[in-house]
Amino acid sequence: MRYSRILIATAAALALSLPAGAAEPAKPATQKAAPAKPAPANPAPVKQIHFRDLGGVKGWRAGEKDTIVYIQAADNSWYRVDMYETCMKFVNDKGLRFITEEDVTGERVSKVIANKYICTVLEMTKLDVPPPQAAK
User: Fold this and answer.
1) Closest Cα to residue 98, out of 55, 134, 47?
2) Are 60 and 96 in contact (CB under 8 A)?
3) 17 belongs to a structural domain
4) 11: in domain
5) Which one of 20, 75, 97, 117 has the lowest number of neighbouring Cβ atoms within 10 Å?
6) Handedness of CA 83, 87, 88, 91 (dihedral sign)
7) By the 8 A CB rule, do 60 and 69 touch?
8) How far apart are CA 111 and CA 90, in angstroms?
């Protein structure tokens, strides 16, 4: 009796120590795993454009939304400026101001000022052709 208890305890301990799939026979591989594409070591960061980089703003046009303005740089190239806040509905007879500042971390931040409202620029994109004329 004592021998059978030891035998059962040993068998149970052995069963618990085996990996879960050890009791199943090995299955042949049907497909080879595709090698993973390595990630680029250091992807080049996208350089954000700021008003300070343009050498000045020569002119601007309102965009199709209150969060978009098109600007013409000093070299006559056009840029689409997407803003975080609604800004264009606050434009008065003084027009717009375009500034670039550094935040507390030292990162550059561009802003559009309409009347007394300050709107943060999300992105500036250079255009290949001038933007459409505003509808009258």
Assistant:
1) 55
2) yes
3) no
4) no
5) 20
6) negative
7) yes
8) 14
User: Is the residue at 99 inside a domain?
Assistant: yes
Q: What is the secondary structure of 21-88 as a DSSP string? A: TTTSPPPPPSSPPPPPPPPPSSPPPPPPP-GGGGT-EEEEEE-SSTTEEEEEETTS-EEEEEESS--G
Residue 66 lies in a domain: yes
Number of domains forming the structure of the chain: 1
Give the range of the structural domain holding residue 122, as residue numbers without chain letter: 51-126
Which residue bears the tokens 């434009």?
91
16: enclosing H helix or E strand: helix 2-17
Predicted confidence (pLDDT) per residue in 50-86, tens digit: 999 898 899 999 999 999 999 999 999 999 999 999 9
pTM passes above 0.70: no
